[in-house]
Write a structure and sequence with these properties.
With 421 residues, the protein is α/β, with parallel strands linked by helices. The protein has a domain at 10-80 and 113-186 and 287-360: FAD/NAD(P)-binding domain, CATH 3.50.50.60. 33% of the residues lie in helices and 25% in strands. It has 14 helices and 20 strands. A seven-stranded mixed sheet has the order 5-4-13-14-15-12-16, with helices on both faces. Strands 7-2-1-11-18-17 form a six-stranded mixed sheet, sandwiched between helices. A three-stranded antiparallel sheet has the order 8-9-10.
């Protein structure tokens, strides 16, 4: 059965050639929808292949409908992690409360999905690998636009011309920098840094999350199934971003170690594992906020245009929805200027609603003061003001357009629950 979705209007697409920079989640999803609409698609990726592993990611609300239309829902349901509990701990390791993860995330069981990032990326790549061109181990070096197209020079030295270029290359997008300038112009720092890595499952955890807190510091151990490895997270509040640590792994490790020195529970073992990890990923919690997502024949999508931060849990979902909306706009508007305008007008409110969830995530997961932590813990113990196990309005606020309707509908904004201290 052919997945439902965008129409194959090759006359509208006119076999336009599109280069997508980035083969993570957003890039292959966009490639799929563009190919179905008759575009000639090339995807360039700086890595040597599809990246496996990675922290679990969520596919919620409108994004779940995107993967259903792609025909991927059965496969992703098979890959669904289905954690049994999330246990919150005090600074000395005592249990505060143990709840279903969906209660904290505001997701709907049996409808929303949580999968390994690598499983999602692999499924998307396999869906399109025989239909679009992939250029691994390469990236965009220069872009030169004209009325006829975009001349692209790759890091490999090769040059080609495309009708359109789309940057789907993540929060630290090279495409965005080439087009709009340094990331600092668009980065909203959210006051937290984090380190992700894997470590041995010496605690025997299974299908669960353990979350430890002290004021301004948090640690999590995430057991995916009965795997012998744990996904580990160490995150902390820092009012001023540590810019010197971003490109120096040694400085990153020392910063994290010094921040968590003397902490209780299993933190010393996590720090030791972090020092030895060969997959350490360190970054700042932040968002990308831009006044426009395109310029000329080049557009941005996903984290490159509107990264919401891990505090929202919506990065992958926004990437999938953004890919669908951009492809739909290009398929229904032969003129790229009109298409990019339609893409932005149809998606902007949805992005804004989901980026606003960062404050909720910080209040629940990363209280920065003793008073805020006490209040959070009191809510956990009584389970009065935590989100219920129903979807937050932002997750499903956008109704996807279909081939018979060019304009999407965004639900009227609902008051978003916020907690501040």
């Amino acid at each position: 059965m052919t997945p439902s979705g965008l129409s194959r209007d090759v006359r509208t697409a006119a076999r336009r050639r599109v280069l997508i920079s980035g083969a993570g989640i957003c890039g292959p999803a966009l490639a799929y929808w563009l190919h179905r609409s008759g575009f000639e698609v090339t995807v360039v990726e700086k890595a040597g292949g599809v990246r496996d592993g990675g922290y679990p990611v969520d596919v919620r609300g409108t994004a779940a409908e995107v993967v259903r239309r792609m025909g991927l829902l059965p496969r992703l349901r098979d890959a669904h992690i289905d954690s049994l509990r999330c246990t919150f701990l005090t600074a000395d390791g005592r249990e505060i409360a143990s709840v279903r993860p969906s209660t904290v995330a505001g997701s709907v069981e049996e409808r929303d999905l949580e999968v390994r990032r690598g499983d999602l990326a692999t499924a998307l790549h396999e869906l399109v690998r025989d239909d679009v061109e992939f250029l691994f181990d390469d990236s965009v070096a220069t872009l030169d636009q004209s009325d006829e197209g975009v001349d692209v020079t790759f890091r490999s030295g090769h040059g080609r011309t495309f009708d359109l270029v789309v940057g789907a290359d993540g929060m630290h997008s090279q495409t965005r920098e080439l087009l709009f300038g340094p990331e600092e112009r668009f980065h909203r720092y959210l006051g937290h840094c984090f380190a992700l890595f894997t470590m041995p499952n010496s605690l025997g955890l299974s299908r669960e999350v353990m979350l430890w807190n002290s004021p301004g510091r948090a640690a999590a151990l995430y057991a995916v199934g009965d795997h012998h490895e744990l996904h580990a997270l160490l995150t902390f509040h820092r009012p001023v971003p540590p810019s010197d640590a971003l490109r120096n792994p040694g400085t990153q490790r020392e910063l994290v170690a010094s921040t968590f020195a003397g902490a209780g529970w299993e933190i010393s073992g996590m720090v030791d594992a972090m020092r030895e990890a060969d997959d350490l990923f360190f970054d700042m919690a932040g968002q990308i906020r831009m006044p426009h997502w395109s310029s000329g024949r080049v557009a941005l999508v996903g984290d490159a245009a509107y990264a919401p931060s891990f505090l929202t849990g919506q990065g992958s979902s926004l990437a999938l929805v953004g890919a669908y909306m951009l492809a739909h706009a290009l398929a229904t508007n032969p003129d790229h200027t009109a298409a990019f305008a339609a893409y932005e007008s149809g998606l902007r409110e949805f992005v804004t609603m989901n980026q606003a969830l960062a404050d909720n995530g910080a209040a629940t997961l990363l209280p920065t003061t003793a008073r805020a932590l006490e209040r959070r813990d009191a809510r956990l113990r009584h389970l009065v003001t935590l989100p219920s196990a129903t979807a937050r309005p932002a997750y499903s606020a956008l109704t996807l357009p279909d081939p018979r309707r060019a304009a999407p509908r965004v639900s009227a904004p609902h008051p978003l629950h916020t907690t501040s201290e």
